[in-house]
Amino acid sequence: MSYYLYKLRFSTPVHIGDSRLASGLESAQLNLCADTLFSALCHTILQMDGVTGLDAFVDKVRTSGILLSDTFPYKQDTLYIPKPYMPSRTNGEVDLSKRKLMKKLSYIPLNLLHEFLHSVSGTGEFDPASVDNEFAAVSVDTKVNLSEEISRPYAVAGISFYEGCGLYGIIKAGEDDFNYLVRVLRILGLNGIGGKVSSGYGKFELFEYVKIDDSENHQHQLLKSLLEKGDAECYISLTTALPTDAELEQAVKGATYQLIRRGGFIYSTALEKPLKKQTQYCFSAGSVFQSRFSGDIFNVAVNAPHPVYRYLKPLFLGVNV
After folding, report:
1. Band of the pLDDT at 212, cuts 50, 70, 90?
2. What ranges do the domains of the chain cover?
3. Which pLDDT value is given to residue 221?
4. Is the separation of the CB atoms in 86 and 256 below 8 Å?
5. 22 pLDDT more than 60
6. What sign does the dihedral 277-8-110-212 (CA atoms) show?
7. To which H or E segment does residue 3 belong?
8. Lowest-confidence segment of 134-143, 187-196, 200-209, 230-239 by average pLDDT
9. What average pLDDT score do residues 111-128 get?
10. CA-to-CA distance for 228 and 117, rounded, in angstroms?
11. What's the angle, vertex CA 55, arms to CA 53 and CA 59, rounded to 5?
């Protein structure tokens, strides 16, 4: 198995529901969590290759033959990762303006990760003012629901990426499996991802992908070394993830993390109307652990005629602080 990096370039606004707010269509977040991507891949595979193809994909993922990260922003050639949830180990005073700027940052450039870690440990400086977190504009469009007797307006929040910006993700897989997922992603891009795809939202182009094991790009080389580091002091999750019950007690020891709500609805031709998925609270990408865990894909169907899976298996960056 190898690590692959892929980039998505969006041609239309994308609606990604902000699960922190649970406020439906009226709010949006910047990135796609891996469980959203996994669900979209499953839906596309079912259309392409039927139940047999879907079952084969799910089995491969369940046994960690394929692993996914969340998607994160890129700006031109610069890759960003979620700001790690790491408390400062220094006792000195921090400039208030810097502290406020640091708190506002959601992402840091991958190539500044070590500067960030040195600042946390008090052995270096990290200037949050130097980090550009402007990747996209948020717009709210008013739509009208014509499916009911009384037409009702509603709002949809969309993310429109600036020129040269988009989302990238990491996949760990064998070569044949990754090549298959390239086909799936290309078809998914035509159909769209996220909410309101029937209204034209979420269309993208898979315009670049690379096996980072073979890449000479310094960011790719850094990613490879951190993804493969198995003897680190701590591990930064690149995936919205959840340990199994057997893993949970060990996983939370010494961890610093943020919980994120994952919910949503089940849309299926086997259902007369959408059903709510089981809600789970998971560790968001950027959470930091002292030991790795495997996570799982969880059946979140409630009173549904078939299983519905949520992907919550992590990829980690191993770092020393």
Report:
1. very high
2. 2-319
3. 94
4. yes
5. no
6. positive
7. strand 2-10
8. 134-143
9. 83
10. 18
11. 120
Coil vs helix vs strand at 137: strand
Residue 309 tokens, joined: 């899976």
Q: Which amino acid is at 65?
A: G
> How many Cα atoms occupy the beta-carbon half-sphere of 256 within 13 Å?
11
Q: Supply the mean pLDDT for the chain.
A: 84
Q: Compute the half-sphere exposure of residue 298: CA atoms within 13 Å on the CB side of its CA.
A: 20
92 φ/ψ angles, rounded to the nearest 5 degrees: -75, 165
Q: Which residue has the tokens 């790491």?
A: 86
Position 129 pLDDT exceeds 90: no
Scanning the structure block, which residue is given the tokens 């040269």?
164
Give DSSP secondary structure letters for 20-77: TTT-GGG---SS--HHHHHHHHHHHHHHHHHHHHHHHHHHHHHTTSEEEPPPEEEETT
Tokens (6 digits) for 25:
């269509």
Q: CA 319 to CA 314: how far, in whole Å?
A: 15
Q: Region of 24 please: left (phi>0), alpha (psi -120 to 50) or beta.
A: left
**Whole-structure pTM value:** 0.87
Instruction: Say which DSSP state 220 is in.
Output: H
**Residue 242 to residues 39, 276, 312: CA-CA distances in angstroms?**
16, 20, 5
> For residue 164, what pLDDT band results from cuts at 50, 70 and 90?
very high
For residue 99, give every residue at least 6 positions away whose Cβ sits within 8 Å of its Cβ, in sequence order, or none. Answer: none
User: Which of 21-35, 257-271, 296-310 is modeled with the greatest confidence?
Assistant: 296-310
Average pLDDT in the 164-193 region?
94
| pLDDT, position 19 | 56
Q: Please give the Cα distance from 229 to 48 (Å, whole number).
A: 36
Residues 6+ apart with CB under 8 A from 41: 57, 181, 184, 185, 188
Structure tokens at 30: 């910047």
Degrees, nearest 5: CA angle 181-185-191: 145
Pairwise CA distance, residues 249 & 271, whole Å: 37
Q: Return the sign of the alpha-carbon dihedral for residues 85, 134, 130, 317.
A: positive
